[in-house]
Amino acid sequence: MPETRAITGNGAIAEAMRQIAPDVVAAFPITPSTQIIEDFAGFVADGKVDTELITVESEHSAMSACIGASAAGGRVMTATSANGLALMWEMLYVAAGMRQPILVAVVNRALSAPINIHCDHGDSMGARDAGWIQIYAENNQQAYDNMIMAPAIAGHADVRLPLMVCLDGFIISHSIETMQLEEDRQVQAFIGEHKAFHSLLDTANPSSWGALDLHDYYIEHKKAQQVAMANAKPVIEEVSERFGKEFGRRYELFESYRLDDAERVVVAINSVAGELKEVIDELRDEGEKVGLLKIRVFRPFPYAEIAAALKNSKIVTVLDRSTSMGAYGPLFVEICSSLYDANPRPMLYSRTFGLGGRELLLDDIRDLFEESKRYLNEGKIEKTSDFLNVRGG
Amino acid sequence: MSEKYGLKNWQELALGGVITDGGNAADYETGTWRTWRPLWRQESCINCLRCWVFCPEGAFVLKDGKTPAGKDRKEIKQIDYYYCRGCGLCVRECPVNKKGKKKAIEFVREET
Amino acid sequence: MSKYFEVRWHGRGGQGTVTGAKSLAEAVQGTGKCVSAFPDYGPERRGAPVRAFDRFSDSRIRIHTPVLSPDVVMIVDTTLIGGKGLVEGAGESTIFVVNTERNAAETKELLSLTTQPVYTVPANSISYRLFKREIPNSAMMGAFARACPEVISLEALVAEAEKIFAHILAADLVGKNIEAIKCGYDEVQTA
Fold first, then answer.
1. What gap in Å lies between CA A382 and CA A120, rounded to an integer?
2. SS3 label, residue A360
3. Which residue of A has its CA nearest to B2?
4. At A164, phi and psi to the nearest 5?
5. What is the side-by-side strand order in the sheet with C95-99?
6. C108 touching A, CB under 8 A?
7. CATH number, domain at B44?
């Protein structure tokens, strides 16, 4: 029987990991993702899952061990945050280049310095070019659901890429929320068998991994990765549809919330979507044509689909919870690219918020929609890019 | 491009660059890289096999033989010039060469 | 209940304030409501003031922002009184549940409250009596049920708490915590 429970986002991810029952988890816990590994270590110790849990001495080693275990043919998972993900950096590219469907829960947290443990998306956004599929979650339920879908996506024969499930640090990871945990057997049937394409342990069929690959072949391998990413898009749609049929919760590449006739649209990622929906409902009651486009899949980025979804919008505010120093926010850049060919093209501007956990309250969101109303009426955007809720303006 | 160089297209590559044909170093004709040629002199060779150990291409071919006292041992049979790329490591490591009076491996420039 | 019923807890690091907020949410969740509970993490050191929040609703809770205008304020440590933020955002009928040995009228005055109902509970002495140490959460939960029976009745709280504690505590401690909830409920004073 599915079970309705109030558990934390981290707890929900740990439950998903228990149900996925990977062969190997190699981890080095870091705030705010620590509870995932603590809970999972409990499952291993209690014999609830038959996983080899490798406690390593750093995140670089965690990802290295994951890569080795994946090359040995195992289903492999880990969890990390911020500086931990940053320390994995080199190995993220190795996992992607070796086409290993390793699954990582990234509990989004700001990167040092100055040191901060709270949420922003600087960690996973920094890793957006590493060749990993990235799927984001608004709440505990979505984080859990995305993780349940992850093995079928990452391990699909047309894809074979590593995958990050991203959830907001503390806001989701440490909040308990009412959610539904699905039944073990039903989840395991949905996930299916893990198929390794080669195993280092198969001595009858030896394989070499990570061989030298110079200008005669490297670019062909990168092209193959890019094609696998493109393949991932329909696979994600297909797996999400199957998930919807099986468990009743429907997911697409992104969520369109009251978007059809919306003139003023906010594009955002992760938990802030909840606050946006709350304010949008209020403004809709007042007759305002406002809507939300919430990104779920950031890599591969659904450019054409987003352009189609925003075709009726007149002004688009893009909320980035990370910043690219010396450039526009990563989400804003993608939305601009999506809409370059749109005719007519909506007005577009970027607002960065929430770095290091700075709150964005419901009143702030009302102000945000007021601002977009003013810009739309005046036909002019005052500042293309700016920070929200920062002292000193 | 692939036609010109005989290389594979991206669609034909093994996933993740994994190599599954073990021992495929034997496919490479490194002998074409040679500008200097080692010449093995059986009459001076003491069959210490240092050349065989050091050769990066495995170009020294062995055969069964006997020590002067009649014990079984491996001996150098020949250099396989399909693989020898003329790096000269054998020439430098040869203990007979080091003594300086006569050479067990001579090193001569390849004729064009 | 209005759209969201919101609770704000004030305590100090190490007193189990966050656990208290989470346990209460789990109990309310057991009665069929949607809940969320989350802490406001600061430096995470023992003794530092910490806040935690609960939201209860008949429908799905979408927001994650800190509770700004609480329906209930739970004060786990009286030494926090006088510090900033305890009465912030409180409305005329915001309920205050305070762990203190003082009487309710005196506590109300200390908090400079007027219209707001104040419920005091000697949760520390209840805890000393039962556990020989200061873990006031269960008694605070009992006091909450006394102050807000429309959110959760004592019977429902006890039934849910038994299930929740059974997952994390040994059997004798489950019994003692249930006892603490009941004592907390019974020993409430109001003003």
1. 25
2. coil
3. A216
4. -110, 130
5. A3-8, A176-181, C34-40, C49-57, C5-12, C72-75, C95-99, C118-121, C189-190
6. no
7. 3.30.70.20
d(C-alpha A130, C-alpha C69), whole Å: 43
- The number of angstroms, rounded, from the C-alpha of C168 to the middle of its chain's C-alpha atoms is 19
Distance CA A84, CA A111 (A): 9
Which chains neighbour C (Cβ–Cβ under 8 Å, 3 or more pairs)?
A
- Chain B within 8 Å of A226 (Cβ-Cβ)? no
CA distance A112 to A296: 26
Domain count, chain B: 1
State ipTM.
Answer: 0.93
- Give the gap in angstroms from C-alpha A386 to the nearest C-alpha of chain C: 22
Pairing type for strands A385-387 and A297-299 reads unpaired
Q: Which chains lie within 8 Å of chain A at 3 or more CB pairs, if any? A: B, C
Per the document, the length of chain C is 191
* Residue to test with chain A: of B2, B9, B19, most A Cβ within 10 A: B19
Cβ contact, residue pair C64, A175, below 8 Å: yes
Chain B partners (3+ C-beta pairs within 8 A): A
Contacts of B75 (CB under 8 A, 6+ apart): B45, B47, B62, B63, B64, B65
Please state whether at least 3 CB pairs lie below 8 Å between chains B and C. no
pTM: 0.93
pLDDT digits (tens, 9 = 90+) for A134-170: 999 999 999 999 999 999 999 999 999 999 999 999 9
Between strands C72-75 and C49-57, the pairing is: unpaired
Q: Which residues on chain C are in Cβ contact (under 8 Å) with A142?
A: none
| Residue contact A217–B11, C-beta within 8 A | no
CB contact under 8 A, A176 and C39: no
Contacts of A213 in chain B (CB under 8 A): 17
pLDDT tens per residue across all 191 residues of chain C:
458 999 999 999 888 899 999 999 999 999 999 999 999 877 668 888 899 999 999 999 999 999 999 999 999 998 998 887 999 999 999 999 999 999 999 999 999 999 999 999 999 999 999 999 999 999 999 999 999 999 999 999 999 999 999 988 999 999 999 999 999 999 999 98
Assigned token pair, A45: 């110790």
Q: Whole-angstrom Cα distance, residue A128 to residue A322?
A: 12
The answer, for A197 touching chain B at a CB cutoff of 8 Å, is yes
CA distance C15 to B52: 73
Which domains does chain A carry? Answer: 3-247 (3.40.50.970), 254-387 (3.40.50.920)
* Interchain proximity A174–C26, CB inside 8 Å: no
- What homologous superfamily does CATH list for C5-190? Pyruvate-ferredoxin oxidoreductase, PFOR, domain III (3.40.920.10)
Q: Do residues B26 and B56 touch, judged by C-beta distance below 8 A? A: no
Residue B18 is nearest to which of A207, A224, A227, comparing CB atoms?
Answer: A207
Q: Quick check: is B104 in a domain?
A: yes
Is the Cβ pair A175, C68 closer than 8 Å? Answer: no
The whole domain housing B37 covers 29-109
Alpha helix segments (H runs only) across chain A = 9-20, 34-45, 59-71, 82-87, 89-97, 122-126, 140-154, 184-191, 218-247, 272-285, 303-309, 330-339, 362-378
Q: Rounded mean pLDDT of B67-74? A: 94
Shortest distance, CA B75 to any CA of chain A (angstroms)? 31
Please answer yes or no on whether A223 and B10 come within 8 Å at the CB atom: yes
Sign of CA pseudo-dihedral B93, B99, B104, B109: positive
